[in-house]
Give the backbone structure.
Amino acid sequence: MNKITTDILIIGAGPSGLVAAATAHENYPDKTIIVVKEDQKGQVPCGIPYVFGEILNDVEKNAMPCGGDMPNITKIVDTIQSVDIDAKIATGIEHSIVFDKLIFATGSISFVHPSFEDAVILENVFTIEKKYEEVKRLKEYLQDKQKVVIIGTGFIGVELAEQLQSVGKEVTIIGGRHILANSFDVDMAIKAEEIMRSKGIRLALGQHAKTILRHDNRARGIELFDGNTIEADVIILATGYQPNTQLAQEAGLKLARYGGIWVDEYMRTRNKNIFAVGDCCGRRDFITRDPSKVMLASTSAAEARVAGSSLYQLKNLKGFNGTIAIFSTMIGDRAFASAGVTQDRAEEENIDYVTGYFEGMNRHPSTIGDASKQSVKLIAMRNSGQVIGGQVIGDKEAGEIINIIGLAIEAGLTIHNIISLQVATQPLLTAAPTTYPIIKAAQNCLIAHR
Amino acid sequence: MNKITTDILIIGAGPSGLVAAATAHENYPDKTIIVVKEDQKGQVPCGIPYVFGEILNDVEKNAMPCGGDMPNITKIVDTIQSVDIDAKIATGIEHSIVFDKLIFATGSISFVHPSFEDAVILENVFTIEKKYEEVKRLKEYLQDKQKVVIIGTGFIGVELAEQLQSVGKEVTIIGGRHILANSFDVDMAIKAEEIMRSKGIRLALGQHAKTILRHDNRARGIELFDGNTIEADVIILATGYQPNTQLAQEAGLKLARYGGIWVDEYMRTRNKNIFAVGDCCGRRDFITRDPSKVMLASTSAAEARVAGSSLYQLKNLKGFNGTIAIFSTMIGDRAFASAGVTQDRAEEENIDYVTGYFEGMNRHPSTIGDASKQSVKLIAMRNSGQVIGGQVIGDKEAGEIINIIGLAIEAGLTIHNIISLQVATQPLLTAAPTTYPIIKAAQNCLIAHR
C-alpha cells in the first residue's frame, strides 16, 4: 500500500473530474493535485454512440484524453474503496491518500428498471456503461448480429439507434409517445422521428417492454404490454443513469432527492472540505428549482469549474442557479438542440408562458448553395417576458445557436432584450439580419402575448 | 402626382426599412404602412461580393426579397425628393405622401477619398453601390477583364478579392498594415492574410494608393506612395460608406458626428414623429460611447426593431446601448468573426483590459471526421471582468459563436459568469465540454488578470 499526501484529491477522471482538476490548478497553482481513475483507458462519454457507427467506428478513436496535457496533475489508477472524511484519508486497493480537500467526481452508472434487473446477466443484453472495456465488449459482440432492440428514447438510445442502423443493423427503438421527450415538444420531436423512420429505423413508440423473452442463456426478444413481441439478437437498455454514490454514502455524506450527493450552490457537501461535481451530485432545475435528474457533461463541467475555484475560498457570489438542461444532438443531417423547459414541462409546472416559433433559412439569400431550413421555438414567462426555454432544429450551427438561447436563459434576459439584440449575420454563415430566427421567435412570443 | 395618406411612412427598402416596416406592423397592426423604394429590384447588401464569384454568380440570385411576403405593407417605387417635416408631407417624382410618422431608412452610399473623386468617372473605376443596376454593370464589365486592383481592406474589399480570385482574376488588394483592422487584432488578422496569400491574392499591405494612373478615359493602374505602380484593368474602391442623409439634411434634421442623422436611444430625431434607422443614422459605440462609423445590417435591423415598436409610444426602457460592431465573414474555408472592441482599440481608448486566448477543436473527440481548429480571443475589463470584445476563427459555426459573445457583451456579463456558463456540447457539433473555447478563453483572461 502506497501512502501519499496531497492537497487536493479528486476521485474520478470523467469530464467533471478532469475539469475540476484543471480549474483547481488554475486557481491554486501551488497546491498538489491527484486524480484517481479506475481504468487506464477512458471513453469520451458523449462519443460512445459514434463508436458503433462509421463516424468513429473504433473504441480507440473515442479515447478520453485523460491528461497527457495536464503536467501539474498527478494521475493514479486505482479504485478507491473507502473515504474517512474526518481523518481525511481515501483508501484504494494500492494507495492510501491523505488529502486536505476532496472532490467526488464518481459520475453515474446505468439505471435498469427492476423488471429487467435479472435480464442484464444474459450474454446479449447490454447497458451502456462509460467504460472502455464495456464499450469494446458491446462493439465486438454486435459484429455478427443483425436485429437490435433498444429500450429507451433518450438521446443515448436515439443516437445509438441511428449509428447501428447506419452500419446495416435492423434497429427497433422502444419508448414513450415521442422520442427525446424531456428536451423537445411534440411539434419538434416528430421532425426527428420522421428522419429516423426515413432511414429505416423502427420506432415502437407509446409501447412499453413488459418482459425480456429468453431462450437458454440468451434473450430472444421483447414482449410488449400490448402482447406483441419483437425479436432481437441483441437488446440494449438505454433507460437512463443514476448517480454513482456508493462510496460517498458509505463515507456518511448526505444524499439529495434522486440519490445524488447533496451539495450547496458552491458544490460543497455538508463538510466544507468535501465537494461533489458531475453526475454523482444532486442537481436542481434552473427554472423550477426542483430536484433534477438531468445528466449532461456540460452541466458537469460548469459544476466542476465552480468547485475547482471554490476549494479554499468562495471567490464569486453564485446566485440563482441549477441545470438549464442544455443539450444538442444530430439526427440524420439535422441538428436538434434544446435548453431550459419545454412547453410540455411548462404546462406540468403550472408556468404562465407564451411561445414563439419561427422557421427560416440558415443562409441569406437562400440561393446560397448549402442553405437549409432552421427553426427556433422559444418559451417565455408571460408576465416578465423572461426566456425560460428554447428548441432549435437546423444545420450544424444549431449546436451553437442553442448556446445563445442558453446564455439568454442563464442571464435572465427577456424577449424584449432579444428583440433588439445585435447579431452578426453573414450570407455564408447565418440567417439574414431581417429574419434571424431567435429574434423572430421572440417577436412571435410578443405577438402571442397580446 | 398621386396624393396618398398613410399612418407610417418609411423611406428606403434595405434591411432597416423592411425590418422597421415589419416591426411597425406587428406593433401597430391597425396602422397603414407605406415603404418607398427607389428601385423595383434590390440586392441583399452583404450578398453582393458573392455575386462576383461562384457562390451566387448572378445578380438575380442575390435579389432582396422586398416583400412579396409582407401583405400588410404597401410598397411604392419612387424617389422622395423633399420632406416637409412640419406639414408631414414627403414628395417624390410621382407621389405626394401625407404621413403621421416617418422613418428615414435611406442607408449609405460609398465613401470616396477626395484624391480619387475625379477618378470614379473613368469607365473602369468602380465603387460598390447597393443597387441592382450598379452591381450588374460591374459584374458585366468584369467579364473579360483580368487584373483587378481593390483599394480597401475592410470586409467588402476582402470578400470581393476572394470571390474575384476564385473565378480566375488576378487580384491585388491595397490597404493598411493588416486586413480587417477594425475587427481583428494582428494575431488573428495574419491568419486571414495567410489564407488569402495561399490562394494567390496579392496583398499590398501598409501601402497606400497615391494616385490613379490614366490613359485616355481609362485607369491603367495605381501609383503607390512608395513610388511603385500596380497595373489594373479594373479598379474597385472599397473604402467604406457614408450615411445617405441629403434628404434628411434638406428637411432640416440635425446630423450627428460622422454625418448620420442624430437620433436618441429610441431612434427618434429631435422631432418625435420622425425616426431614423440603419446606416443613415448617427451611431455610438456600445463600449466607449463614442460616435461610431460602424455600418452593419445586423445593427441596422436592431435599430429598426426599436424604432418600429416605439413609433407611437415607448414600450421598453432602452438602457446603455450603441453598436457592438458584431460581424462575421468567411475567408477560404474559415469563418472569422468579431464583436465589441479589439485589443488594439482597447489600447487606443485607454481601457484597462485583460485578454484570454484559446485554440481547440470544434468537435470531440478530435477524431470526428470534420473536426477543425477553433480559436477564441476574449477582451475583458480588468477590474469588473466585463466582457468587452471577442474574436473567433473556426468552421461555419463560428458565425454563431460570435453571437454568444455578442450577447455576453450586450448583457454586461463578466468572465466569471462565462466560466460557469452551461453550454450544450455534442461530439458532431461542438468542442468538448472540458475545452469549450469561450469558457477556456475566459479562464485565460482570469489567469492574465492575476
Q: What stands out?
A: The two ends of chain A are 70 Å apart (CA to CA). DSSP finds eleven helices and 26 strands in chain A. The domain at 2-38+78-109+242-310 of chain A is CATH 3.50.50.60 (FAD/NAD(P)-binding domain).
